Amino acid sequence: MKTIATIAIYLALAFFAQFSNAQEKENITKIEQLQQQKEQVVTLEKEALKKEVESINDRLATNQISRKEAQTLKEAAAQNHALNIENAVAIIDNRIALLERNGTETIGTEDSKITFGIGSKNDENGDVLFGINIKTGKGSDTKKDIVYDRRTSSGIMVAFGVNNAIVDGQSLDDSDYKIAGSRFFELGWFWKTRVFKNTNFMRIRYGISYQSNGLKPTDNRYFVENGNQTNLEEFRVELDKSKFRMDNLVVPLHFEFGPSKVKETEDKIRYYTARKFKIGLGGYVGANISTRQKLKYKENGDRIKDKIKRDYNTSDLIYGLSTYIGFGDTSLYLKYDLSPIFQDAIVEQNNVSLGLRFDL
What we know:
By secondary structure, the protein is of the alpha+beta class. It folds into two domains: 2-133; 152-359. Helix content is 27%, strand content 42%. The protein has an eight-stranded antiparallel barrel. Strands 1-2 form a two-stranded antiparallel ribbon. A two-stranded antiparallel ribbon has the order 3-4.
């Protein structure tokens, strides 16, 4: 029995020693975290002051306030953030002192006690430190600073319409391709950046787009690749459908002009082009990523669908000019390939498209 009691005492002492060491290590970790918080408070307050001064300078540059008013606002902001740092650091130093002296931030008894801290997970502002949101780990949100002057926006562009080809010595009235049946489609992501600081009259639009240009030959013809030449030839039976398609991936660039509406508050300025006239001039460059031909016909009582994917001597490098004119998010869109449809062709053909485009 004595042996068992002795072992129990040793185990209890070992557990107590281990618990004490763990508690001491935990307190050291808390103190290190508090020291890091002190540094973080200083950094965040300095960043906040810098942004506030930049906002004041912007208001001064646009003649919203006088130079004297700007200086007064800057001095008040500097004093305010300095006091924030002083008060915050004092609170953290007191918390460190409580930990070093008592091993805890709690004073009083279990029935009546006060725990010193800044914020609480149960509080509505539990993740807020001295009025500044701090991201402390996964799942916690950081309040994003409002950009005072956002000069770049982005969105989706969709366009579709009729497609055809400009052939040397031939008008569109005598085109080898059906006017209504030949179509194009374009889908892309764009960015729009204001060129000048204090006006939105001129913007640069750029991005990346997928273009699909389709051509439907007339007179029961289809494309045949003969060496380095691709020609239209009559099919052996009546065709229900003959369609040729080129898929391109391009980078468009346009200079866009037009008025806009300005909305300005104390913390932000925005330019809006909704329900405003606009015109864009520019072009595009990219690559042909796919060329294919689709044929549907009936032969010997069988309905046949041929989908043929090959080079067809089409141009690998795609480049051209494009323009649009419209109102708000809707525009009339025209694009013309300067690169020929077929390389080394005896008669050069260039793709042309006309339709509508929408900014989403």
